Amino acid sequence: MNNLKWKAIFIVAVTAVALYGLFPIKERINLGLDLQGGMHLVLRVDTSNLPEKQKEDATERALEIVRNRIDQFGVKEPMITRQGRDGLVVQLPGVTERQRAIDLIGKTALLEFKLVSDDLEQLKQAREGNVPEGYELKTDEKGNDLLVRKDASLIGDTLVDASVKFDQSTFGEPYVGIKFNAKGGEIFSRVTGENVGKRLAIVLDGVVQSAPVIRERIPRGEAQITGNFTVAEANDLAIVLKAGALPAPIKIEEERTIGPLLGQDSIRSGVRAAAIGGMLVLLFMVIYYYAAGFIANIALALNILYILGFMGLFHATLTLPGIAGLILTMGMSVDANVLINERIREELKLGKSIRAAVAAGYHKAFSAIFDSNLTTIAAAILLFQFGTGPVKGFAVTLTWGIAASMFTAIVVTRVIFDFLLSRNLLKKLPMLQLFPQTKIDFIGKRWFCYTISAVVIISGLFIFWQRGEKNYGIDFSGGTVVQYEFSKDIKIDEIRKALSDIGLGQASIQQFRDRPREISIKTQQDMSNQIEAEFKAKFPENKFDVLRVETVGPAVGRELKKNAFWALVLGLVAIMIYVTLRFNLKYGIAGVIGLFHDVFIAVGALALAHRQFDLTIVAALLTIAGYSINDTVVIYDRIRENLRMAKKEGLKDVINLSVNQTLSRTILTNFTTLSVVVVLFMFGGDVLSDFSYCLLVGFISGVYSTVYISSPLLIAWEKKRKK
Hints:
By secondary structure, this protein is of the alpha+beta class. It contains 25 helices and 19 strands. The chain folds into four domains: 38-106, 2-Layer Sandwich (Alpha-Beta Plaits); 111-245, Gyrase A, domain 2 (2-Layer Sandwich), CATH 3.30.1360.200; 260-432 and 446-467 and 557-722, no CATH class; 479-552, Alpha-Beta Plaits (2-Layer Sandwich), CATH 3.30.70. The strands form five sheets. The chain has an eight-stranded antiparallel beta sheet, with helices on both faces. A hairpin with a 5-residue loop joins strand 6 (135-139) and strand 7. Helix 12 (320-349) runs antiparallel to helix 13 (354-386) and helix 13 runs antiparallel to helix 19 (554-582).
């Protein structure tokens, strides 16, 4: 009794900590960019043209300059971190002015002051292609040709201030006022004094901003940059100049921009799917298991509280795939409760008292629960290691969910049972039983099932091979996807014609089901600015919003594809090693063959349905592997238990007995999990459509492979061993 008291105190303490971490929820849990809108950029600092001694700290200096620019831009809680040797990751929550942000971050901001030749004959020769030595031909802000010296008279490294000012003589037109330090001011004074009457080009990143005539010597070390700027353009120019020039050019390797409208829609879809999925699970448990189901529902409610509470405690970020992970956890967490309740039912049938049946049920179910959940956690860890962005959010939520479900299923529900039994409040424990004990010969059908599986897998992989690069989303193939929402319905033919006029007639265009106003366009290069300009010209009365822009460079695509491959391979190897250690090598190999079966079935189904293979699909495939091995481990655990008890029975009979004994648990847990996946597929929105479709196929395949592939394979292995 004293032990029960301390367990209860511990549960109350954990619950209190979770509540503390949860409220106020808006301040505790950060929303990912896919939920609140914003930009995610992966940048590469191109140091190829730098001397070796400048390369050493170029990326670190670039990081500080980018951080200074963003801080002055006024983004709330940005994230700027280094990635690898020359990479930077930048996240800008809430930023919707995409091009402005890209220009602000990506400008090298190399400011140069160059003298302009006033020799008209030389200018004429330069226009004909005969540019004099030491000069280059450029164009000023008005479109006039200029013959500019290659060598700069002064550069921006002596700049100490830049600010927006307004020229009252031109009705308040904005310009950028700049100020040099003492050294720069001395040089500027000398250059202007020696070249009165000549033009001085102000060049930023190789582009002439203005080229005013020097009227007199300027001794104060101050100048102004004009160029018909808007206030925002002048402000951004002042920011980049004040923050300093980048040590090397920056290239955008990956971009994911989510508009606020899509973020709000994702939140609505996620919350709706979570509410419906949760209600289905709660209703099923209480209807099927009565009091035991009500206790399991308490555990499920605490499970959700613990996930969100501890995410809030560590200020974790919740993404849309993270919400999917939360929904999935609802279905998967029921697995442990079903396993325990089914074990308790078996013990009650043996004539044991409720107290003895509960104790035996928890004891016998523990190893299967522990093994199956640990393998899923291993898959989630690999997802976090090799995933990126929202996929990491899914991995975090799934890991928290599994850990919380184990605690609530094994500890919390046991404490509730023990408390009720100690107070003599639980005298009966009735449960429905829709699936009576069966005596199906599963092993006898194995060759027929092997043949069917082989045909389905080979057909699916052939379709996948035949489609080639069409299988892959931009995560792996590279390119740009832009999604638009128009104010009125629009036809794909109209979009195709508009794109043809700017040379994009072969672009991939997708219209979302039941949403005739939304269009998604995939191109090889980032043509979003040209597309938007064309749409504004062709559809002036049909306004549109940019819901999302995703761009992945070919190098990043190859890297992501490689990481995805290793995540899958290492996940399957890790599962095989663990199952081998817990059982033996034949169990590990048979289990992993079953997992390969499920992964290949899911990949073939994606190809058949013309759904794209991207990072979220990798997350789905590893989840399928983790979930499928759950079923397999439960049956393997029962096989091992029965082999100890029935030593005279043949392996075939023991496997058949074990599969039949666990069949009701297999059906029930998969029914609850598939229910929430169906809800996710129907109500999770288009962003999670491919993800939930893959899970749906994989989970169904997982039930089949556990019963008809992984378990019967133990017979084949045993026969080979005996020869």
